[in-house]
C-alpha cells in the first residue's frame, strides 16, 4: 500500500511532469474543440514527438491531452452546434439551445464542473476495481456488442428531432452509408462502384463535420441579419446546490461511462449517447424540455464521456487490451519504450499503473482550473457576428477534414454531407441519427454476423443465445424495457406526460 | 436566494429562446413545405438503389455481407413511404410560400455555396493560405453587404495567421 502511494506521488514530486500534464490538458482542450482534430490524432502525433523521452514524461503529456481533448469536444458543441468530437454529439442537443439563450457560460461552467467530477469517478474505479471490471468486460460476446449497438440505435427516439419516422429514415441512411467500402470480415466490396476512394469507406468524422458544421453554417445564412445572442457571464460556476441536485445523475452517467469505456472497442461516444438517452427517459422534471436546453442533457453525456476515460484504461492496464483508440496508441507507446502491455504489466511494473492514475488525477485538477478560466473567452466567441465567425467555422471544418487522412476528396465529401444535412434540417430530419447510424452501423453489422456465424447460420441457436447468456439476457431485457418506456402507457404511469 | 435568481434567469432565457426557430426540431405544420414530397421520394429512391445494388453482394446465408445493406435499404423505403403519404395528407404549400428554388436556396446560401465550391476547386491549385484568405475575405465582405471592407480584410488575415500558426506549427497538422 505504502509502495503504491509512493508510485502515485511520482508526478507530484516532479515539476517537469506536472508542467507536461498541464500543457497537455491545455493543448487537449483546443484539439478537442476543433472538429476533425481528435485526441487519437494528437496522441499518435505525440508518440513520434516523445519517442526519445522518458516514458513517464511521455505518458504525462498523453494523459493530459486525453483528458483535455475529451472535454474540449463539448466547447464547440455548446457554442456553435458543431461537436468537436463524436463524444460531444449529444451535448450539442441541449448545449446549443442554452448558448442561444445567452447561457453559454453557465453551460460550459456546469459542463466543466461535472466533467471533473466524472473524471475522478473514472479514476477511482480504475484504481479500486480495475481487475474485476476488466475480467467482466472480457465476458462480452459479439452478441452483446450487437445488443449494445441496438441500444444505441434506440437513441434515435431521443435525438430524432421530434419525428421518429424521419429520425429512423436518417438513421437507416447513416447505417447504409456505413456499409460503403471493404467488408472487414470477407474483403467484399460494398457500394464502391469501382471507386478507389470509396473502398476505405466513409469516415463518420467527415460526415459529422459536414452534417453538423457546414449544414449549421448554411442554415445560419438563411436568417441573415439575426444578431448573435448576448451572453450572460455573471455566474459561470454552478452553485453547490445545483451541483448536489445533479449529483445522482452525474454519478449514474459517469459509472455508465466507466463501464462502456472499459468494453474493448466502445468508447466515450457510445457512452455519451447512451447516457443522454438514459437521462431523457429517467428525468421526470428536467430543468427545461430535452432538446431545448435541459441541463440534464449536458450533464449526462459529459459525465459519461469523462467516466469513459478511466474506463478505457481498465482493460489496457490489466489485460493489455485497449478500451478505445487512444489507449490503443498508448499501448503502442509502451511497446516503443520496451514495456510489454498485458496481464503481467500490473505485476511487473506496478509503478506505471499508479503513475497513470496519478497523471489522470492531476489532469482532472488542471481541467477544472483551465476549463473554468477558458469559459469567458470561449463564451465571447459566440458574440462575434456570425458573418465573421461562420466563414472561419467553414475553414476550420476544411482543416479538420483534411487532417483526418490528408485527402482533398474528403473535403468534397464533407461539403456534400453539409449540403445533405442542410436539406435534411429544412424538412425536419435531424442530422444526429444519420451520424449515429454511421457510428453504429459497422458495430451492428460485424457483431451480428459474428454471432450468426457462431450459431452456424441457424436462426434458433442464434436466438437462444440471447436468453441463455446472463449478460445477453440482461441487455435484451434492457432493450425490451427501453422500447416499452417509449409507450404512452409507461410515460403516463411514470408521470412523464 | 441564489437558486431563485438562477431560476428567474432560466425563465427569462427560455422566453428569449421561444422566438428562435430551430430548424433541426420537427414541428408538425398544417401545410407541407415546398419540395417535401420530393425529399421523401428521393430518400425512397436511395433505399431502392441501396437494395438494388445489395442484390449483387454475396447472399444466401443469414451472415452474408448483403444482410445489413438490404435491411437498412428496406427500412429507408418503408419510412420514406410513410413520410411521403403523411406529406400527401397535409395541405398543399401555402400560396404565400416561396418557390422551391427560393425555399431551398435563398440568396446568401447560394452565394456562400458558390464560394465554397470555388474554394474547394482552388484549394489544391492555389494552396491553403491564398485560397482560404480569398474565401474568408470575400465571404465576410459579401455577408456584411460590402461594408467594413478593411475590417474584413484585416480579420481574414489575422484569423488565417492564427490558424496557420496553431495548426501548422503548434499541432503539426498538414494543411491542404
Walk me through this protein's architecture.
Chain A is mostly helical. Chain A has a domain at 2-145 and 208-391. In chain A, 74% of the residues lie in helices and 1% in strands. Chain A is built from 24 helices and two strands. A two-stranded antiparallel ribbon of chain A has the order 1-2. In chain A, helix 6 (104-137) crosses helix 13 (247-262) and helix 7 packs parallel to helix 23. Chain A is globular, with a radius of gyration of 22 Å. With 176 residues, chain B is mainly α. Chain B folds into two domains: 2-98; 105-170, no CATH class. Chain B is built from six helices and no strands. In chain B, helix 2 (36-54) runs antiparallel to helix 3 and helix 5 (107-143) packs across helix 6 (149-170). Chain B is flat, with a radius of gyration of 24 Å. The model of chain B is unreliable at 1-26 (pLDDT under 50). The interface between A and B is large, with 91 and 79 residues.
Would you summarize the structure shown here?
The complex is a heterodimer of chains A (497) and B (176). Chain A has 497 residues and is mostly helical.
Give the SSE layout.
The complex is a heterodimer of chains A (497) and B (176).
Chain A: H1 2-13, H2 15-33, H3 39-49, H4 55-80, H5 89-100, H6 104-137, H7 142-153, H8 156-159, H9 164-178, E1 181-182, E2 189-190, H10 196-199, H11 204-222, H12 240-245, H13 247-262, H14 268-282, H15 296-319, H16 325-336, H17 345-348, H18 350-381, H19 386-405, H20 408-426, H21 432-454, H22 459-468, H23 470-484, H24 488-493
Antiparallel strand pairs in A: 1-2
Helix pairs in contact in A: 1-18, 2-4, 2-18, 3-4, 3-16, 4-5, 4-6, 4-15, 4-16, 4-18, 5-6, 5-15, 6-13, 6-15, 6-18, 7-21, 7-23, 9-21, 11-19, 11-20, 11-21, 13-14, 13-15, 14-15, 19-20, 22-23
Chain B: H1 2-18, H2 36-54, H3 67-89, H4 100-104, H5 107-143, H6 149-170
Helix pairs in contact in B: 2-3, 5-6
Amino acid at each position: 500500500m505504502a509502495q503504491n502511494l509512493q508510485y502515485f506521488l511520482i508526478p507530484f514530486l516532479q515539476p517537469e511532469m506536472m508542467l507536461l500534464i498541464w500543457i497537455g490538458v491545455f493543448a487537449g482542450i483546443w484539439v478537442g474543440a476543433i472538429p476533425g482534430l481528435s485526441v487519437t490524432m494528437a496522441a499518435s502525433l505525440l508518440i513520434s514527438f516523445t519517442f526519445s523521452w522518458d516514458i513517464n514524461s511521455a505518458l504525462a503529456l498523453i494523459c493530459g491531452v486525453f483528458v483535455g481533448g475529451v472535454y474540449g469536444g463539448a466547447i464547440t458543441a455548446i457554442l456553435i452546434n458543431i461537436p468537436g468530437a463524436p463524444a460531444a454529439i449529444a451535448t450539442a442537443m441541449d448545449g446549443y439551445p442554452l448558448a442561444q439563450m445567452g447561457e453559454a457560460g453557465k453551460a460550459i461552467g456546469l459542463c466543466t464542473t461535472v466533467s471533473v467530477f466524472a473524471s475522478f469517478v473514472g479514476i477511482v474505479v480504475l484504481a479500486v476495481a480495475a481487475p474485476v471490471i476488466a475480467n467482466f468486460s472480457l465476458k462480452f460476446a459479439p452478441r452483446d456488442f450487437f445488443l449494445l449497438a441496438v441500444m444505441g440505435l434506440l437513441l434515435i427516439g431521443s435525438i430524432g428531432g421530434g419525428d421518429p419516422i424521419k429520425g429512423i429514415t436518417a438513421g437507416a441512411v447513416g447505417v447504409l452509408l456505413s456499409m460503403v467500402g471493404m467488408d472487414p470480415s470477407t474483403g467484399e466490396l460494398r457500394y464502391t462502384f469501382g471507386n478507389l476512394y470509396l473502398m476505405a469507406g466513409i469516415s463518420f468524422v467527415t460526415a459529422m463535420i459536414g452534417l453538423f458544421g457546414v449544414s449549421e453554417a448554411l442554415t445560419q445564412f438563411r436568417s441573415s441579419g439575426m444578431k448573435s445572442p448576448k451572453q450572460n457571464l455573471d455566474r459561470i460556476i454552478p452553485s453547490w446546490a445545483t451541483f448536489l441536485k445533479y449529483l445522482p445523475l452525474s454519478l449514474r452517467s459517469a459509472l455508465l461511462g466507466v463501464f462502456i469505456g472499459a468494453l474493448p472497442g466502445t468508447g466515450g461516444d457510445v457512452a455519451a449517447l447512451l447516457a443522454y438517452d438514459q437521462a431523457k427517459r429517467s428525468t421526470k422534471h428536467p430543468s427545461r424540455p430535452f432538446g431545448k436546453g435541459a441541463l440534464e442533457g449536458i450533464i449526462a453525456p459529459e459525465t459519461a464521456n469523462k467516466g469513459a476515460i478511466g474506463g478505457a484504461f481498465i482493460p489496457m492496464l490489466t489485460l493489455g487490451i485497449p478500451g478505445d483508440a487512444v489507449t490503443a496508441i498508448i499501448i503502442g507507446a509502451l511497446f516503443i519504450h520496451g514495456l510489454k502491455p498485458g496481464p503481467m504489466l500490473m505485476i511487473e511494473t506496478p509503478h506505471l499503473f499508479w503513475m497513470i492514475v496519478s497523471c489522470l488525477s492531476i489532469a482532472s485538477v488542471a481541467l477544472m482550473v483551465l476549463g473554468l478560466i477558458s469559459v469567458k473567452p470561449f463564451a465571447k466567441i459566440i458574440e462575434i457576428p456570425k458573418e465573421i465567425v461562420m466563414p472561419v467555422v467553414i475553414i476550420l471544418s476544411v482543416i479538420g477534414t483534411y487532417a483526418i487522412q490528408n485527402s482533398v476528396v474528403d473535403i468534397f465529401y464533407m461539403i456534400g454531407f453539409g449540403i445533405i444535412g442542410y436539406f435534411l434540417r429544412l424538412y425536419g430530419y435531424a442530422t444526429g441519427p444519420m451520424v449515429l447510424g454511421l457510428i453504429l452501423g459497422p458495430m451492428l453489422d460485424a457483431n451480428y454476423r459474428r454471432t450468426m456465424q457462431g450459431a452456424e447460420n441457424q436462426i434458433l441457436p442464434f436466438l437462444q443465445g440471447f436468453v441463455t447468456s446472463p449478460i445477453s439476457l440482461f441487455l435484451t431485457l434492457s432493450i425490451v424495457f427501453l422500447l416499452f418506456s417509449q409507450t404512452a402507457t409507461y410515460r403516463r404511469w411514470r408521470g412523464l406526460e | 436566494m441564489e437558486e431563485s435568481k438562477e431560476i428567474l434567469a432560466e425563465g427569462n432565457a427560455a422566453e428569449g429562446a421561444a422566438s428562435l426557430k430551430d430548424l433541426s426540431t420537427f414541428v408538425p405544420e398544417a401545410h407541407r413545405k415546398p419540395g417535401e414530397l420530393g425529399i421523401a421520394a428521393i430518400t425512397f429512391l436511395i433505399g431502392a438503389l441501396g437494395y438494388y445494388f445489395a442484390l449483387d453482394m454475396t447472399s444466401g446465408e443469414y451472415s452474408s455481407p448483403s444482410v445489413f445493406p438490404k435491411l437498412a435499404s428496406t427500412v429507408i423505403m418503408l419510412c420514406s413511404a410513410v413520410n411521403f403519404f403523411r406529406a400527401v395528407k397535409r395541405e398543399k404549400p401555402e400560396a404565400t410560400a416561396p418557390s422551391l428554388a427560393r425555399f431551398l436556396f435563398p440568396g446568401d446560401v447560394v452565394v456562400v455555396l458558390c464560394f465554397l465550391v470555388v474554394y474547394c476547386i482552388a484549394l489544391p491549385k492555389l494552396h491553403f493560405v491564398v485560397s482560404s484568405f480569398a474565401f474568408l475575405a470575400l465571404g465576410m465582405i459579401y455577408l456584411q453587404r460590402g461594408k467594413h471592407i478593411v475590417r474584413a480584410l484585416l480579420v481574414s488575415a489575422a484569423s488565417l495567421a492564427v490558424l496557420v500558426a496553431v495548426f501548422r506549427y503548434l499541432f503539426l497538422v498538414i494543411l491542404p
